[in-house]
Design goal:
With 267 residues, this protein is α/β, with parallel strands linked by helices. 50% of the residues lie in helices and 15% in strands. The chain has eleven helices and eight strands. An eight-stranded parallel barrel has the order 1-2-3-4-5-6-7-8, surrounded by seven helices. The two termini are 15 Å apart.
């Protein structure tokens, strides 16, 4: 079954909105793990709008203390030190040695990630390839945030990535605008399925994320061969209505449903 990694950025954002330590990020991460999630994801941005440097190490300790729980750090590897105390993305990765590092080509003040890497740009490819090797030497699995483009997926393999994370925003947008059963959403679903098949042929693991939610998650993951999804904003929003434990259970149920459908589809 596809693993569920919960992005806790929004929990940190809520804490920072008022100052102090509530909600306690580590307590929330423990509750998420206790409810059955397979991993914790963070995206520490240079402006520290949510995750702060100390959070990285505190959450690393929480994940390490749990059984078979993955700690995943997302971010742009070119983000260097800032005067506000942000030490630089590379420094955070090297110091915390996450189980997985997902490299994302976002800009410093971008609201949210909205596109994958262009690995046909020579300088970008060379830089990403070097960074992948450096992080792998730490014992960290490296994933690249990628659009559903077979050519870019092949370049991710050439750069040495262990996995890709498919940017699922376009599928989620189509499902929200036209309906989950619409022709438009299904056309995107088929595009992602072709990308997943290609990635498997290239020997890559496959993650997915961005705007996946309880409405579209099971349908998307029925593609099959999705190793992990990373979900934050939608899940935390659902938790405000349903409660955290029930929300985690609902997402795991959706992934279990997707696995059942995928087994039939792939048979």
């Amino acid at each position: 079954m596809t693993a569920l990694s919960v992005n806790v950025n929004k929990v940190a954002w809520l804490r920072n909105a008022r100052g102090g330590s509530r909600p306690d990020l580590c307590d929330m991460a423990r509750a998420i793990i206790g409810a059955g999630a397979n991993g914790i994801t963070i995206h520490p941005r240079p402006d520290q709008r949510h995750i702060r440097p100390q959070d990285v190490f505190d959450l690393r300790a929480v994940a390490s203390a749990a059984n078979d729980v993955e700690f995943n750090i997302e971010g742009n590897p070119t983000a260097g030190p800032r005067e506000n105390g942000y030490p630089g993305f590379r420094q955070l990765v090297e110091a915390s040695k996450p189980d997985q590092c997902t490299l994302v080509p976002d800009t410093e003040h971008q609201l949210t990630s909205d596109h994958g890497w262009d690995l046909y740009e020579t300088t970008t490819f060379d830089n990403v390839k070097s960074i992948i090797s450096t992080y792998q030497d730490l014992g960290t699995r490296v994933s690249l945030f990628i659009d559903p483009d077979p050519d870019q997926i092949s370049r991710a393999r050439d750069a040495g990535a262990d996995r890709i994370e498919l940017y699922t925003g376009p599928y989620a947008d189509a499902a929200a605008k036209y309906g989950i059963d619409s022709k438009e959403a299904h056309e995107y679903w088929k595009r992602y399925r072709r990308s997943v098949i290609h990635a498997k042929e290239q020997g890559l693991g496959i993650n997915a994320g961005h705007d996946l939610n309880l409405i579209n998650l099971a349908r998307f993951c029925s593609i099959g061969n999705i190793d992990e999804v990373s979900i934050g904003h939608a899940l935390i929003a659902d938790a405000l209505e349903l409660g955290l434990t029930v929300t985690i259970e609902r997402y795991l149920e959706a992934l279990n449903m997707a696995a059942s459908v995928a087994r039939v589809t792939l048979a």
